[in-house]
Design goal:
It contains 13 helices and 4 strands. The protein is mainly alpha-helical. The chain is globular, with a radius of gyration of 19 Å.
């Protein structure tokens, strides 16, 4: 089917555009004197969430809030269940640093705040929306998160996560023209891929008679989560567990506190049927990580990783069945 091919092509443009944008922006930032650690925190972290952000912004501009919400909810579920679980299957994840032990509760807080904001039907008896005022609150929380994290990077310490991020951004270059070409090409790829993904995701949902939120959660979200899957798996194999978990948690915080509220700021977002359950499921995955990394010698075993992957596929199957 042409729509399916164009959807996959759009996701390919998103991934290629995000990679090119990260590469070019990292080189330019270092050339102009930005510390490598800050580049690792901002450019690299933002770059892995760029596909989700572009899809959501374009979805909001096109009035397709369901596929935008499904993209974020599905991406967060895929990061915790599929990405982290798959990484643990390759090698047990052992956490050594302290930053991750703080980032995980922050993810729980962000998810809890988002959940309360979309409980309009239960709390006020009105249809569930993420409106502009709530989006502003989430963006303010994101600003606080960035501020706290940047302060950590300027403190004299040797946390494994900081060292891992620093190692990602030590390749300097003087080819400014090439770097700018990467940035421009990456942005064009993201925009082109975003449009193809939104338009053909809607067509595919209509062809199979399923809600667009399901296409967003399964096809688009998993496709845009491929950078996190590759990065986390490689980090786990290299015994850089803090980078592996930090990549997943950071991406989910970006999605909840930046990607989703930016969409809601452009156009108030109606929460699709089953959306509240998606946020609850994402929170449950994060809650399970608390005893794993705080009470079990900070080790996520292969068995636990397998259970996370099975849990992810079980929930996705449930969503498809109940939606069709």
């Amino acid at each position: 089917m042409l729509a399916a091919f164009l959807l996959v092509l759009g996701i390919g443009f998103l991934l290629a555009g995000g990679t090119a944008l990260v590469s070019g922006a990292s080189q330019l930032a270092e050339k102009y004197g930005v510390p490598p650690l800050v580049v690792g925190l901002t450019v690299v972290a933002f770059g892995t969430s760029a596909p989700e952000l572009v899809v959501n912004v374009l979805g909001a501009l096109k009035g397709e809030s369901a596929i935008a919400f499904g993209n974020v909810a599905g991406s967060n579920l895929a990061n915790l269940g599929l990405v982290l679980g798959t990484a643990a299957l390759f090698t047990p994840i052992v956490i050594k640093g302290q930053l991750i032990r703080r980032e995980l509760p922050l993810l729980l807080l962000a998810t809890a705040v988002l959940l309360v904001m979309i409980l309009d039907t239960t709390l006020r008896g009105v249809p569930a929306f993420l409106d502009r005022s709530e989006s502003v609150v989430l963006l303010m929380l994101f600003a606080v998160f960035i501020y706290i994290t940047i302060l950590d990077f300027f403190k004299p310490q040797s946390d494994p996560l900081i060292l891992s991020l620093s190692s990602l951004t030590r390749q300097k270059t003087d080819k400014s023209f090439v770097s700018w070409m990467y940035v421009v090409g990456g942005l064009l790829g993201l925009i082109m891929g975003g449009n193809l993904t939104i338009d053909n995701g809607i067509k595919l949902a209509e062809a199979f008679n399923v809600p667009t939120v399901i296409i967003g959660m399964i096809v688009v979200a998993v496709g845009t989560s491929l950078p996190e899957l590759v990065t986390s798996t490689i980090a786990a194999i290299r015994n850089e567990a803090d980078l592996c978990l930090g990549n997943v948690i950071g991406s989910n915080i970006f999605n909840a506190l930046l990607v989703l509220p930016v969409s809601g700021l452009i156009l108030p977002m109606e929460i699709p049927q089953g959306g509240i359950g998606d946020v609850v499921a994402s929170m449950l995955f994060a809650v399970v990580l608390i005893p794993i990394f705080f009470l079990r010698k900070s080790v996520m075993s292969r068995r636990t990783g397998g259970l996370f992957v099975l849990g992810y596929f079980a929930y996705m199957s449930y969503r498809v069945i109940t939606s069709t």
